[in-house]
Every structure is written in structure tokens, then in C-alpha cells.
Amino acid sequence: MSHGYEKGRLDLPFVGHCTFGKRPIVTDWDAIDADVAVLGIPYDMGTQYRSGARFGPRAIREASTLFSFGHGGAYDHEDDATYLPLDQVRIVDAGDADIVHTDTVRSHANAELAVRKILAAGALPVVLGGDHAINIPCIRAFSEHGPIHILQIDAHLDFVDVRHGVTEGHGNPMRRAAEQAHVTGLTQIGIRNVSSTAREGYEDARSRGSTILSVRQVRKAGRDAVLATIPAGARVYVTIDIDGFDPSIAPGTGTPSHGGFLYYEVMEILQALAASHAVVGIDLVEVAPAYDPSGITGFLAAQVLLNFLGYIFEAKRKAGA
Amino acid sequence: MSHGYEKGRLDLPFVGHCTFGKRPIVTDWDAIDADVAVLGIPYDMGTQYRSGARFGPRAIREASTLFSFGHGGAYDHEDDATYLPLDQVRIVDAGDADIVHTDTVRSHANAELAVRKILAAGALPVVLGGDHAINIPCIRAFSEHGPIHILQIDAHLDFVDVRHGVTEGHGNPMRRAAEQAHVTGLTQIGIRNVSSTAREGYEDARSRGSTILSVRQVRKAGRDAVLATIPAGARVYVTIDIDGFDPSIAPGTGTPSHGGFLYYEVMEILQALAASHAVVGIDLVEVAPAYDPSGITGFLAAQVLLNFLGYIFEAKRKAGA
Amino acid sequence: MSHGYEKGRLDLPFVGHCTFGKRPIVTDWDAIDADVAVLGIPYDMGTQYRSGARFGPRAIREASTLFSFGHGGAYDHEDDATYLPLDQVRIVDAGDADIVHTDTVRSHANAELAVRKILAAGALPVVLGGDHAINIPCIRAFSEHGPIHILQIDAHLDFVDVRHGVTEGHGNPMRRAAEQAHVTGLTQIGIRNVSSTAREGYEDARSRGSTILSVRQVRKAGRDAVLATIPAGARVYVTIDIDGFDPSIAPGTGTPSHGGFLYYEVMEILQALAASHAVVGIDLVEVAPAYDPSGITGFLAAQVLLNFLGYIFEAKRKAGA
Amino acid sequence: MSHGYEKGRLDLPFVGHCTFGKRPIVTDWDAIDADVAVLGIPYDMGTQYRSGARFGPRAIREASTLFSFGHGGAYDHEDDATYLPLDQVRIVDAGDADIVHTDTVRSHANAELAVRKILAAGALPVVLGGDHAINIPCIRAFSEHGPIHILQIDAHLDFVDVRHGVTEGHGNPMRRAAEQAHVTGLTQIGIRNVSSTAREGYEDARSRGSTILSVRQVRKAGRDAVLATIPAGARVYVTIDIDGFDPSIAPGTGTPSHGGFLYYEVMEILQALAASHAVVGIDLVEVAPAYDPSGITGFLAAQVLLNFLGYIFEAKRKAGA
Amino acid sequence: MSHGYEKGRLDLPFVGHCTFGKRPIVTDWDAIDADVAVLGIPYDMGTQYRSGARFGPRAIREASTLFSFGHGGAYDHEDDATYLPLDQVRIVDAGDADIVHTDTVRSHANAELAVRKILAAGALPVVLGGDHAINIPCIRAFSEHGPIHILQIDAHLDFVDVRHGVTEGHGNPMRRAAEQAHVTGLTQIGIRNVSSTAREGYEDARSRGSTILSVRQVRKAGRDAVLATIPAGARVYVTIDIDGFDPSIAPGTGTPSHGGFLYYEVMEILQALAASHAVVGIDLVEVAPAYDPSGITGFLAAQVLLNFLGYIFEAKRKAGA
Amino acid sequence: MSHGYEKGRLDLPFVGHCTFGKRPIVTDWDAIDADVAVLGIPYDMGTQYRSGARFGPRAIREASTLFSFGHGGAYDHEDDATYLPLDQVRIVDAGDADIVHTDTVRSHANAELAVRKILAAGALPVVLGGDHAINIPCIRAFSEHGPIHILQIDAHLDFVDVRHGVTEGHGNPMRRAAEQAHVTGLTQIGIRNVSSTAREGYEDARSRGSTILSVRQVRKAGRDAVLATIPAGARVYVTIDIDGFDPSIAPGTGTPSHGGFLYYEVMEILQALAASHAVVGIDLVEVAPAYDPSGITGFLAAQVLLNFLGYIFEAKRKAGA
Q1: Residue E5 pLDDT exceeds 70
Q2: Which residues of chain B have a CB within 8 Å of the CB of A294?
Q3: C300: closest CA among C287, C281, C314, C313?
């Protein structure tokens, strides 16, 4: 049979080690030879409310095994496409950046090093947080791989400059990104309700050219209007805070905010983006499994990432890349 | 007063044994004299990821007590109807099929026997799973009670023929059903994302005349288009995998899949179906309560079943049956 | 800096005692000098299914700390407004009414006394339940502060007159309210599915002039049609049963009912109400945290109340009040 | 084979309705013809902290199914005895007393009536709480079936006379019992730490002839010294508050208290008691399953009751009764 | 009546704000006038495994309300003593030290300041962690209030000097303490199993005069032998890591270790210590409530602290202090 | 420094992939070159009550990371030994046996093959269940590596021959083992309470030379008496059902039974066994993490296995092996 299920193991989802998508482990970052390298950054010292996102990478890896039992890739009948065929899209699990408790600076330096290694290997970095502070070293690692436009999907603007001396907490990453020379713009969607960013943070973001859209504004404007805020030809880094989604599907997170995105709203934007722009980096942050006994937050994260990767490489395939 | 609440017990939902809808127990299947017989099949050896659906029948029975304290039936103000009046719709709880651990064949045989007894008694079988594999003996039991058209509500196509020798797991039931002489067609809705059914399973299903619609396709096409795929006059068996619903309302299941149906989307199809066709059997599967501490999955299952039964018998009453 | 974050403490959400919105405690009710006084009524002996709403006030207070770290008020970019500036809207946490186990009459008397004290102080009472029975003493406390129109957001009509002698359980409050001379009308929205209110309860409600709308009826009619059921110039008391919301966002409650309101559906009604009418009292009931390990029900309650208060005082400010 | 497992159903623990020990239901209390009748009293309005014991009866019934799959009785190799042979000890599940929300007096009256019916039928009443207040109607029901000595196993003395008018809460039952003419004495063991009973409650209890022993005092004195406090020939009613056990094995309760009894400490007292005295009534209270996701509290309750019943009837058998 | 329950409120445990023991809040640390001041340090960036101890203070405060309803103090029948009479032992809740996310140095400085204020006020500091790193600023704060001997109850030695630059994580506090001039010795009990302290850490500790005893060694040696390791006349600071207790009673912690102390083993040491030495400071750390849905870890912490305080002040009273 | 922590990564417990003890993965079973090979058998179709042990291997692996951060082995101060030094005891994680849903025969065959491969490689097999049925293929795999004596630690005798045709469920393994020519005897400890093994099962076991001891019998007899039931010179296979331990420390299991072993009771037997006999195989079964939100059952399993392995290789080292 063509799918080859009878050859080798059945390998049901609950069987075997938890690597991302059950793909091979490569923790020697100098030996990465792949299209995608998945890296965990299990850091949660930047959070301002519930900690626990340090177990995000493990939760997402475990959840991803549910979606990895198509031996010949994942067939999607809506799109009539087989995503991520094993022989065409080489994904490796690069393990985790080394975290040093009590020490944000050193932890972020370790994380930045890991992302730089992945970029040097020519693979697409897919980073599993950790809290949103881990976006800071990720963006820094692109200093020689820019320019990039950032698409942020999040409940919170995360545009605090400095407060009580804190510059690298989970309320600061977009401000830090905006300061980088290789970051040419930001599109921030899903932003809603009160958060640590005060009015002057919004003004600061807007003055730096950021586009800020709430969930309802995205719904009213439509997918294409969102994409229109990203310059044609821009290379896009996508940062997904799981709390950009509604708490009904993402309860396992540190700072939930009601009124978030539903599943297809985000996926349709990501699918269109994959077709229209080059996606050069991805992080997905703030999954805190201790607050989600049913595990649906982890499943959401895994499903979003696997499908988004599918869209990206299917678009590349169609483009003949 | 007409409702009679002061006579006898108040019988609040949390009081008393957990039978389905607090209706009487009849475990002597040769003695069933009822319009509806509810049967549990607490089997979960067919699942490919999280087990635990063996406690589905108990969870649904417990949850159903919340909706059973209307002594004179359940008044619905939207429909201005009183559903399931105790004196007009006789529902009995037939207990569970006998499950034999490690032994799928024997367990399924026991389940098939039970459903045959209910059909022989002239009652509508309403089966509480268990994982979706339990649909296989249910459909077989209709061999002398066909022909039937199957309406499946599910995230997964469940159309695997055989893999590593497995033919009666929870990925196989629709393929097994399609093989039965007394099954004349399938309408499969809610199907989305990757699952154990590979591309050839879809092709197989379509070649056998199955209609396959995703959640988004159902939303776009509308309720009536779904019903139009069921031949006029067909006798319909409805199989509801709780993961056809969105994880936000059905987290307690073995293989959650984001992007599922919301409550009214399904109920409006079921209500229209009850008015347009004869419903001859129902199963609801894959409720795994260990993964849902808040219990909303069980409440969903109970609410769906009690309302669907209400629609069916109200339609019969209106039709003068 | 204008926000003043560097002065004094950072005071992150997880730091410090749990008072509502981290506002000051005033348990000497004769000393209340505030615009808003938040009172807990941790009573749950009126429930007909799952108990536990007695911990509602503590859960909501804890959750509210997440939304209270804007030192200068809460900036909402969608509305371009800063809600609840600390120096303009004085909110105090008045602690809890004294509950006497086994004794509903005495507990309700204590609760009524507390609300009367708040009204006497000229503050807006915001009451945290407790089960919905606690609405009964709240409404009674308005006897000298009427007339009022009640807007109820709920899955259940709660219009039972008396059953087995019970007149002050959580199925009775709207019936009790309708009997009060100072209650001039009711608008009851979100009502759906079977509950303890039988058909005659609906007839009774309608005969007393109540408007009853299901979730789907509200969706079809639209926000303005809902508001149109409230007479112009009416002073409005809003009672929010958290089960009026969908179980996907409010699983932690005693009697969940699928098919409920989503977040913005309710918030847009409340925002419009704040602009069109005087809101003179609020209660939010039936949060039972033991059934919600992720805590999203408490976050919903806190978010609804803080935003609603923001709408009310922003409307007052605009009106020059 | 002698055990007869192949005849009829395998009937694994997870299969079938949840009745106590999977024994038959008899809810027509005038028709009880049994050695033991198990009654639930799902009342929790008497608790002073965490509610939820109203689901105690359901949790204990569910848990008891784990210990009920010996078709020919339960063989205990330590005692080399087969306990509760189905053909010799007739146990029935009498369902629940009718509870009226908000109304303790009426609920207790209903409970007392149920226990009186069981006593009139000549069966041993085994009552599943509910909070400890339900002991009050149970003891009252013995007014024509005394005299009785009470053995209480509990963390708390429960000897409050009246406070804020409350006389029938879960802090009052032993004081109420001591007032009854047919109660000749109390042995109260496991009592420890602070509770609602103040110093004068202890003095009151002692002045009425009660023996009060802490966990450590029982350990030091030994089993026989405990039994020596019960007069020879006394007919004994045993009331077991699950919080008499250590929180490590009974976390699912309203008012946990560390330093409690371990399993065999209690069982050895109960086994000796069964051999030395006539046990005429039993209640087990305060199981609150919402606070115990692992379910071990329910298993403890079921195991204690089934073994205790085994001891009682084995002792009767040996005594030739 | 002497207890005064009828005067004022009944004030059941579940009613009212969560302050430690329901005692008054004094967050102006210059205004503390009390025998005991309870301070939270909700810091968890020092942990090497599961985070979440930042919610320890809130969990312990909530749990302590269960043990605070004796209006006239807590009567203990085993000791025939009334502990912590409100009019004799003045306890205040001083709120939390200000925590700065990402910044251990600044957080610890804030914590040290708070403890210094309490010491300056002449109150006994009782500190609620947070992870064990918070012991570092606590001990530093005693620089002018020494000398002190430290009694540590813990599964782990916490004697790491420096690793990857980390000197103030939760594996370092005892090493840091041993360096302080005002710390004259350590008694470390409960230490067991593997942890972050390697062999050289043990050697280092012993060379600095520390006494290290495992749970089994304490059991064998007995309580008095433990106390004998503390010099007569020493002023003792007690640091209790909740994981010193067995996971059966303290599951809600970051790094559980089986084989720990049971309740009375610790309490009897603390009671004897209170009688033999002056206790000048206490901290209790590592309660992580997200990992304990039943809440027994918080109850343990509250029970340990309230009883320990009772022992201390009863000993002072007896000594005529 | 000798421990080498500053070289390379800090590698905190929560960082990195979940392999057993963070040891390397070798899933090519023909390439195993190690002292110990850890294999998961995630099979749970043999259970008679709560399923979920299929996630035992993942839970134990995750928990084992907590105990694996000693870079130079695990120092135990009680024994003054460094266990499992990385350079002396080579442990590999061999992944999982391939499980085929619905098919016990094929799953067991796959498991047997895996254990045979490990034995062929000369490594000590350490197997993570799955339910206790997985012991059946494990013992079979020793057919060429006998004779063996089995030490079982368990609440249940598991000595059912056949019932309803079932011979390879979790109630059958010891009966199956006793039939094997290469199994020379059994020592079964911890056995207590009712289970699926009826009286004739006990008689059967005894007639085949098995020693059966309850928890209390082991406590009374002492460790040495237990070891004396194992013939001198016997090669011992140890099978540990986690429910042999008390539910207080092992709540996450399918069929909990109160009154089980505490931690040191078992560890001291295992340590003595390691010194007195050759241990040739180990399995640890029935960890079902879905029933243990605090995770202490997984920590227990990991701690037991890592310490037991430490004892074994330390004994070998001392013996000069």
C-alpha cells in the first residue's frame, strides 16, 4: 500500500518519545541540516502573573504527537493537500535553549545563540516558549538575517519601554523589537483590554509605525486588510502569544483575556500570509499547561504550528521553490 | 397546581441514582417496553490516543440528571414546546453492554446483542460510548432493521480499512459501516484536520458515495444543504462523536481537534432532521470525563441527546404518529 | 513619567492582598465614602445542583488583580479611553455580608442590610455572589431607592413562585423581584433550555410584563432591540448570572447550559446600556471556582465587572455628571 | 467453576449503573427486605467552609463499584474470610432522602423519615452524607430503636450547642445527639486541632460523659482502650467523618485537618468493635469529590464501609446469628 | 456567653477577605505595632523545576481562614490550651514585598527591606514564600538582629555555592546563610535523596559546622537529639521548606521528594523548640498551589504556622514573658 | 571544579527532552550497548477499571528529569554514595514497544520482541508500563534467560487463570508467570483487600509455591523475612505495581487500594535485595497520570526506579563486578 503503514511500526500517537511532530532530535546545533528546526525556550521569569510557561515546550511537544501519525504526511481534505510530507519537508527538534534560573540576561543570551545557530544552518526557526520575553533574544538573533516585519498575534501590546528597571520582561518584547535596526515594522493584532502597556505605550507604538488592531477590528476589516498592513515583499517573523486566542480554546496561559480570536480566524490569516509573503521565523509563547488539565491549549499550539508549517511549505512547493 | 411538584419528592438534580434523565432502569432486555432505550457501551480499547471513554456512560448519565427535574417534561420557550413529557415518551435506561477487557471481538458481540434486543423490543436505541469503535456493533445490529443512511458528526473521517491488522478500532467504523448491505449511504460532517484516515481513505469514502463536509463547508452551505445529502424517505442513524464539537465545549475527549462545531450549529441540523426524516438509531461517543474537571463535555452530551430526543418525539407527535 | 510607575511599588498582579481591583477595604459600612462599593455575598444554599458559589467572591477578587495593574487607570485602545482612573472613580471593597450556615432567612437579612448601607452611603452597589438567590435581598434593599427596571442576563428564567415551600432559592429571584412594588419591569435575556422554571413560570413572567429573549433571539434582534425593551429614563439594576455566558468561557458554575452568550455580545449590550440609562445596582452570581481549574470563569467575571464599571463612569464623565 | 464467573456477565467494575456495591436498588422504602439498606443524604447546607458534600453519595457509589466484582463475595487473604457473600448478606441501595434547597428543617425531616423506614424494615441503616449535620436526623430516627452508644471518628468534636441561632449545622451533631434520651454515651476519637467547638464545648461534652481522644492519644492507648470506653453490651451507632482520616488519604472533604488517622488504625478498631458489640447504625459523611480529582477519598469511604459491613456480618455468622 | 459568638458577626471561615488568620492588614510597615507580622514574598524565579510558588502567600492566607474562626483563640484539647487569644497575641498581615519580574536582585532587596522593617518594629517576622531563595534576603535582614542559629526543615540541602553564576537561586540559601557573620550554626533536617547540592556541597556544609539529618535519622535519633544540636540559649530562625514534608501531605510544591516528614514529627520538634529556645524568625516556602487541586498543602502550611505561633506565645506566657 | 557544572549546559530539570533520567535515546534495539535499557510499553487494554496507564511511560520519563541534574551522578548523604555516575553506569532510553490498538496479542508480541532485544544486548531491562498485563510478555522474553524468581510488589494478587476467555489482562500476569518453565518461584508482597483474584486464585498460587504477604504481614515479619522467601542465588525479576504503594503517595493509578506500602518500606527491601541477589529485570506498571494532577505518582515511580538502579550498580561495584 502506498501509505506504507504496514511496514515498520504502527507508532500510534501515544507511543514513543515526545519530540515535535515525532520528528528526529538534533541537539548538536552545528549539525542541523533541515528545513525547519524547532527550539524550546523554557523561560518564565518574565511573566507578570501566573508562571508555568517553562513547561510550554514539553506540553506542545506532547500534544504534537497527536497530529503526527500520518506516515506519509498529513492529508487535509478541505485543501486537498498533503502537508509536511516526511520526504520533502525536513523538520528537526533542536531541543531547548539552556535556561539559568534567576538570570534573565544569561538565559536570553543562551536563547539568542541557539536561534543564531538555526539561522546559520539555513533552517526556519520555530520557537516554543516560554513567556513572551523569549521573543527578545529571538528577534535579536536576526540581526544579520533582516530586515524583518513582525506580525504579532496577542491579547496584549507588550510595548512597555522600562518600568522599575525591567526591560526584558514579557511586557517589553515589541518595544525591544521596534528598537532593532533590522525590524522594519510591526502588525499587532488581537490586542484588547487592559494590560501592562499604558496609553503612552500605544502612542509610542503608533509613532513608530506599528499597526494595532483589536479582535473586533480584525473581524470588521477582514483578513486581506490585515495582510495589507504588511509591505509587499517583506520577510515576516510571526510571534504568536497563545493568549491572542480566546480563553475558551486557550485556558492554559498566564494572563488570559476574554474576547480573543477563534481558531479559523487566525489560521486563515496565517494561510494567506504563507501564500503572500516569506515567513522567516516563528515563535509561539505563553502556553502554561498547569492551568489546563484538559490539554486543549497544547493541542491548539501544536495544531497551529503544524498547519502553519504545512501552509508555508505547500506555498513554497507551489511556487516551485 | 398542574405541574404536581408538591406531590411526591422535590427530587433535585443532585439527588438520587444516576440513570439517563432519571428514567427507570430496565436491564432485562427482553422486558423492554418503551419508546427509547438508552444503552451504555463502556469500551475504550479502540482509541489511538487518550483512553478513558469507558467512563463516558457514567459521566453522561450523571450530567443528564441536571436536565431532568422538570416533572412534567421540559418546557422550551424558544420553541414553545414541552419536550419528552413523562407520560407520553417512555424512556428506559437499559444499563451497559458487558465489556471483556483485552477482547474487542467479544465486547463488540456483547454490544451488538444488546442493540439487537432493543431493536427487537421496538424501542429507539440511544447508545452512549465508549470510543467510536462501538459504532461497529451498533450498525451491525441493524442488519434486519435496514436500510439506513448514516449521518456522522465528527472531526475525523474514521474510514481506515485495515492497518496492522486492526479493523475494529475507532478509526475504522465508517469504513465498516460502508461495507454493510443495509447501509445505503453516509453523510459525514465536521471532518477537519489530520487524522488516522489518509488520502486514500477519503478517496475510498467518496467512491462509495459518501458526502464529506468540513465545519467551514457546512457553515457556508447551510443546514438545508446538509440535509439535502440525505435521500428523502431515508431512515437515518445518527452517530455523534463529541469531538465533532469544538474543544471549547467538548474538552473531555480522547482526540480533540480545534475548529469544531458550536452548539446551535449541530442542534439546528438535528432539529431539522427530526422533522424531515425518521431517526432510527443514535450513538454519542468519545466522552472521556477524566480530561474535563468542569464536566461541560458530559453536560453537552446530555443536552444534545435529551434535546434531540425531544425534537424526534415532538415531530412524531405533530405528525400524528 | 506621567504614569508614575517608578514611584512607589511595581505591585504586579500576583503581589498583595486580594481585594476587588486592588482597591481599598472598607468594612465599616457606615464609613463608606466612594462611588462604588463591592460586596461579597458568599451564600450557596439556594442552589439546586452543584454548590460552591460561596467561593465566588474570593475567586473574583483574586482574578480581578490581573486587571488592576494600570496605576493610572485602564487604557482601552479600541475606545481610546482610560477607564476607572484611580483619582476619579473611587471604588472600595466592602468585604462580605455575614452568612449563617443552614439559615437562608438570616443570611439574606444580613445581605440586605449590607446593600442598604451601601445605598445609604450613596455608592453604587456591586455584589459578588454566591448563587442567584442572593439577588433577592439585593432587590429588597432597593425598596427606598426605586423604582428600578431589572436587566437579567442568565440561562435560566428563575421565575419559580414556590415549590416544596421554597421561595428564596436560586430558582426564585426573578419571581420575587416581580412582586416588589419598586420593580417596574424585567428584561430577561439569554434564557434557554430546560430549567426549574416550568411553562407556567414563563406565562407568569410574561403576564407580569417581562420580556424574555433567548440567546438566538437576542442575536437576531440585535443590541438595540434589547435596549428598547427598557423604558427610556428607567433606572436599571443589572443581574448577571455567569451561566448566561457560554460554558466554553464560564465552565465554573453550578448549572451550566450550552449555547450561551459570548463575551462581546454581552459587553456591547452593557456598554450601550451605560450610555443610555442610569445603572443603579449590579450583581454577578454563580461563579463556582472548584469546577474551573483554569480560572477563566473568575477572569470573565472580573473583566465583565471592571469593564462595565468603566463604561458607566466614562458615560457619566461624558455626560458631565 | 465455583465462582461462576463464566455464567452471565463479566460485569467489570466500570460497567453498569452506580449503586452501592452494585447491589439492587429499592427506593420503595416500605418494600425493603434486606440485611443492610444504604441511604444517601446529599445535604451540604450545614457546612462552615467548603461545600460539595452533596455529591458524596454519588462519589461513594461510583467508587464502590471497584470493590464489587467478586461474584461470590470478597475474599480477604489476611483474614482468610469471604466477606459479604451475595447469597448470605442482602444489601440494598435505598436511594437518597429528598433534599429541599434552602430548607434544613424539611431536609432533615425527610432524612429522618427515610432512616425510620429502614429501621422499621429491620435492616441496618448505612447512611452516606452529605455533611455531618445529617447525623442529626439519623440519630433522631433511633428514638424507638435505642438505647445507643455513639462512636464518632472525626477531626472535630462537633459539640456546639447554638451559635447565631444555628442548631443543626455540621458543628452541632454530637451536642444534639447527647441531648437525646436514647443516646447513652459518646466515644469521640480522632479529635484534633482547632475547630468550631470552643473550650466550653469540650467541657460540656465531658460533663455529659463523653470520652474524647485525639489521634495521638488513641495511638498511645491502643485499640482495646478505645473499645473499653464503650460499655459492654451497648448497641453502637458509628458515625465516621471522613476528615477523621488524614488528608493524605482523604483530601476530598470540606474541612481537612492534618494529623489524622491512617487506614488500618481505623479498620482495626472497627473490626474489633464488630466482634465485641452490636453495630446498629452507620453513617459516613463529608466526602466532597470536587476537591479530589484522583478519587481516593471516595475509594476510602467505599473500602471502609464494605469492609466494616464484612466484619459485622462475619462476626454475626461466627456468633451463629 | 463567654465566647462572644453572638455578638457581632458569625464570620464563618469562607466569609471575608483572605488575610493571614483573618488578622488585620498593616501595609504601612512603619506603623506595625504587633507581636507577629506576616509577610508574603511571592517570588519564584529561583526555582529549578516547577514554578508557581509566587502564589504561595495567597494560598496560605486563604487556607488560614479555615483555622481562624475561634473568636476567643484556638482551643487545643490535647494541650488543654487556648492558643493565640486575640487580645493577647497581636498578629498583623503586612502584605507582600514588592517583586520585580526578571530581577532577582531588586526583588530580594525589596524583601530584605520589608523584613528589616518588621524587625525594627519589634515584631516576629513570619514570612510566606515564594521559593526557598527568599530565605536569602530574610537572613540578611537579621544582620543587626543576630546572632541566630538556623533550623532548616527541608528535603534538600540547598547548599550550592555558585553554578553558572547563580548565587541566589533556591539551591543556594543555606550556603548564603552560612556565610553571614550573624549566623552561628545550622541544623538541617529532613534532607534526603538527590538534589542540586552535590557531594562537595555536603562536605562544605559539614566543614562549616552544619548538622545534617535525614528523615530516617531524625526518626531514629528522636526529637530531643535534634534539639540538642542547637546550642542552649541560641536564638533560632526556622526555615520550613514545605517539601520537607512528605508528598502525601504536601503535593503542591515545585520539587517533591518522597519519604518526607509526617505532620506530628515536625510539630513535636517545633513545640519542643518553642519551649527550649527563643524563636526569632520563621519562613515557610515552596507552596505552589497550582499543583494541588485539593488544597491540602496550603492547609498544612497554615496549620503548621498557626500552631507553631501558638506554641511560641504559650511558652512565652508560661515563662512570664 | 570537580563536578563540572560550569562546563557545558546547566541543563536544569525542566529543560530538554523527556528521556528517562535524561539519558540518551537508542531506539535501534540492535545497537544497544549499555548496562541498562529503559523500555516503555504503553498498553492499557488489560485494565479492569480506570484506563490511562498508556501514558505511564511519558509521565515517568517527565518526572525522572527532576532527579537527573546531578552531572556527576546522584549523591546520597544517608548512604554516603554517589549513585549512577554517568561514566560508570550506562543507561539508555530504548523508546516504546509498538502498541496495536484493539489487539492485545500483537501488542504483547511487540513488547516481548523488544525485551528480548534488550536481553540479547546484555542490558538490564527496565520496563515502564502500561497496565500490569505487560508483565506477561516481559516474563516470556526471559525464556532463554532463566531461571528467574519473581518478586511482586502489588495490592492485588493478579493470579486469575481465565475468565470470560481473558488470559492476558492485568488480573492474569502472575498466573501466567507461574506457568513458565523458567520461573522458579514467586514472592508476592503488599497484597490486600478484595480484587479480581478470588479465593481459588490464592489457593492456586500457594499450591504453586508462591509466598503471599500483606502489607501488615510484611511490617510484622520485617525486611529480612521477606528476603528469606527468595532462594539464595536466585536471579530475581522485580515487578512493581504502583498500587502496591499507598494511595496517599500513588493516587494516579487505575485501581487504588488503601492500606499500601510507604516509601521506605519498599526501598529498604529493594536495597537489601540489590545487595543479596542478582536483579535481572524490572518492570513498574499502572501509573495513570490523568488521575494525579500533582504528579506525585510519576515522581514516586521515577524515584523508586532511579534509586533501585543505584542500589543495584553500587552493589555490583562493591562486589567488584
Answers
A1: no
A2: 247, 251-252, 256, 291-293
A3: C287
Q: Which residue has the cell 483487600?
A: F193
Residues of chain B positioned with their CB less than 8 A from the CB of A307: 193
Q: How far is E237 from chain F (nearest CA, A)?
A: 24
CATH code of the region D20-316: 3.40.800.10
Burial A175-213 (b: 16+ CB within 10 A, else e): bbbbebebbebbbbbbbbbbbbbbbbbbebbeebebbbb
Q: Provide the grid cell at E315.
A: 511558652
Q: How far is CA A215 from CA A153, A174, A240, A257, D241, in A?
A: 10, 18, 14, 12, 52
Given strand B235-241, what is the order of strands in its sheet? B91-96, B36-41, B124-129, B278-285, B235-241, B148-153, B183-189, B211-213
Residue A44 sits at the chain E interface (C-beta within 8 Å): yes
| Residue of higher predicted confidence among D2 and E287 | E287
Q: What would you report as the CA-atom Rg of chain B, rounded to the nearest whole angstrom?
A: 18
Compute the mean pLDDT over every residue in chain C, rounded to the nearest whole number.
95
Strand order in the sheet with F183-189: F91-96, F36-41, F124-129, F278-285, F235-241, F148-153, F183-189, F211-213
Q: State the ipTM, two decimals.
A: 0.97
Among B71, B75, B306, whose Cβ lies nearest the Cβ of C202? B75
**Does E87 carry a binding-site annotation?**
no
Contacts of A228 (CB under 8 A, 6+ apart): none
Among D96, D125, D122, residue whose Cα is nearest residue D111? D96
Q: Is D212 close to E77, i.e. CB distance below 8 A?
A: yes
The domain ranges of chain A are 20-318
To test the contact with chain A by mutation, choose from B51, B199, B204 the residue with the greatest count of A C-beta atoms within 10 A, namely B199
> Touching E: which chains, 3+ CB pairs < 8 A?
A, C, D, F
- Compute φ and ψ for F68, nearest 5 degrees: -120, 20
Query: How high is the pLDDT of residue A9?
Result: 94
Nearest to E313 by CA among E22, E122, E35, E19: E35
Q: Are residues D164 and E66, on separate chains, in Cβ contact within 8 Å?
A: no
Q: For residues C60 and C67, give the distance between their C-alpha atoms in angstroms, rounded to a whole number.
A: 11
Which residues, at least 6 apart from E321, have a Cβ–Cβ distance to it below 8 Å? none
Nearby residues of D218 by Cβ (< 8 Å), 6 or more positions away: D189, D190, D226, D261, D265, D269
B164–A294: do the CB atoms touch at under 8 Å?
A: no
CB B34 within 8 A of CB B119: no
Distance from CA of B7 to the nearest CA of C (A): 9
Low-confidence ranges of chain C (pLDDT < 70): 1-7, 69-72, 321
Q: Is F76 on the interface with E (CB under 8 A)?
A: yes
d(C-alpha C248, C-alpha A248), whole Å = 5
| Residue A310 backbone phi and psi in degrees, to 5 | -60, -45
pLDDT tens-digit series, residues B14-71: 999 999 999 999 999 999 999 999 999 999 999 999 999 999 999 999 999 999 865 5
Number of H helices, E strands in chain F: 9, 10
What CATH architecture does domain E20-318 belong to? 3-Layer(aba) Sandwich (3.40)
Read off the pLDDT of residues F74-95 as tens digits, 9 standing for 90 and up.
899 999 999 999 889 999 999 9
What angle, rounded to 10 degrees, do the helices at F296-318 and F263-276 form? 20
Is B103 annotated in a binding site? The answer is no
User: Chain A contact for E199, CB < 8 A?
Assistant: no
Q: Which of D13, D263, D306 minimises the CB distance to F48?
A: D13
How many Å apart are CA B309 and CA D35, to the nearest integer? Answer: 40
From chain A, the residues in CB contact with E170 under 8 A are 101
Chain C neighbours (≥3 Cβ pairs under 8 A) are: A, B, D, E
Q: What is the spatial order of strands in the sheet that A211-213 belongs to?
A: A91-96, A36-41, A124-129, A278-285, A235-241, A148-153, A183-189, A211-213
